[in-house]
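Many introductory courses stop at the sequence. We go one step further.
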Amino acid sequence: MRACRSEPDSGQATVELALVMPLIIGLLLIILNVGLVVRDQLAVWHAASAGARAASISPDSPDIVQQAVEDEVGLRPLHLQIVRDEQLITVEVQYPRTLNVWLIKHIIPPLTLSASVTMHVQDVG
């Protein structure tokens, strides 16, 4: 009959996993948040592009531009600025973004995502 011997390393892997797991989870949360911020930045750029298209057709109607921007993306609140210079019109969209993950939101201040698109004013006679 074989005697069962207790090895000193039998629980080492479990302890190492327990020590490393919070770091792995934290790293995954950071990667997830970076992905969400990149997604929102692309949405802000897309909203600025839609606003510039609407402003190039209707340069004297900021309500139409605001509606085009809000219809394009679901982010709220979007801050919109329209600047016209002769035959060019620039639309800048800003979106205040906070990170809502415990501990990270206390370390990283709120971000302001912004995008600016310039287009020629169309002559729609």
